[in-house]
Amino acid sequence: MGGVPLTHILFVSTALFCIGMYGLFTRRNMITMLMSVELMLNSVNINFIAFNKYLYPDKLDGIFFTIFIIAIAAAEAAVAIAIIINLYRTHKSIDVEDATEMKF
Amino acid sequence: MNASATIFYLISAFILGAGLLAVTSRKIFRSAIWLLFSLVGIAALYFWMQVEFIAAVQIVVYVGGIVVLIIFSIFLTQQSGKEMPKPIFKRSIFSILAAVFGLAFIYCLIDRYGFSKIETHPLNVSVAEIGTQMLSTTEHGYILPFEVVSMLLLAAMIGCIVIAMKEKNPIIEPPKPKEAKLMIHSDFQTTENQNNE
User: Fold this and answer.
1) pTM (2 decimals)?
2) Are A7 and A64 in contact (CB under 8 A)?
3) Contact yes or no for B2 and A2 at CB 8 A
């Protein structure tokens, strides 16, 4: 592992999470917001793998959690894109500001 | 700094740079391609950590599945050459502030905690080991979550088909243009007058 401490990997994943958070706050297009959410999920996966590798090398729990998160992220992306396409059919736009029927 | 550490820092700079471009690029298709590069960089990080199975799953599911799905939906719903409008100045300032303060807070937290270095023996992540433990029914087996996730994937697949299915007779009529509505109205009035006459 070449003397890279665990904290540096955690810094990278934290920075990636904050980048995803910035994207989620600034973008108003649903597809780009979905992309930001994918970045955040990936940073969590990096954390799980790094903790498993550095702190608990005799177990495999982090690996399993990462696999389950990847599976759930795939399901989530598919459902989100189905909703986006259906929304585009009725509103001709996928901007979150244009879909306000269910507000309040 | 030896070669392994240099490779790690290069990979992390690649991931963060591509991720930053993915959330700031104004053209949506370029943004998706930057996201793809960032995900490939994360797979490279998994290879660097010697968890080859997770790296392969990352490439197959994210790069081969989710990004392709996102690109398809971009082509179905957007004019991909058009630039997206700029975010509102106030909103982007506050987002940057939230991200930077969150990053600084977690940085201090991690830096102060200082994880005790254990790492006695390397992690055994052969596919046989993962498969045996995932499908075992003993105390530390993961067979129940495995089954639950498979049911979730099935439910999500059926749900996607039901949501995105085109209805033959849509219940909600698409809003008609204004001029057409006025014409119909006037036509209705004339027919009414004719009936009165």
Assistant:
1) 0.84
2) no
3) yes
Taking CA atoms, B140 is separated from B118, B127, B135, in Å, by 22, 17, 10
> Dihedrals φ, ψ of A102, to 5°?
-95, 10
- Looking at CA atoms only, how far is residue A97 from chain B in angstroms? 12
> Which of chain A's residues have a Cβ under 8 Å away from the Cβ of B121?
57-58
3-state SS, B112-159, equals HHCCCCCCCCCCCCCHHHHHHHHCCCCCCCCHHHHHHHHHHHHHHHHH
CA distance B105 to B159: 39
pLDDT value at residue B30: 92
Of B51, B17, B22, B109, residue with least CA distance to A57 = B51
CB contact under 8 A, B163 and A21: no
Cα A13 to Cα B16: distance, rounded to the nearest angstrom: 9
Q: What's the complex ipTM?
A: 0.92
Mean pLDDT of chain B: 83
DSSP H helical segments within chain B, as ranges? 3-24, 28-48, 52-57, 67-77, 89-113, 127-134, 143-164, 178-196
Place of tokens 């700031």: B24
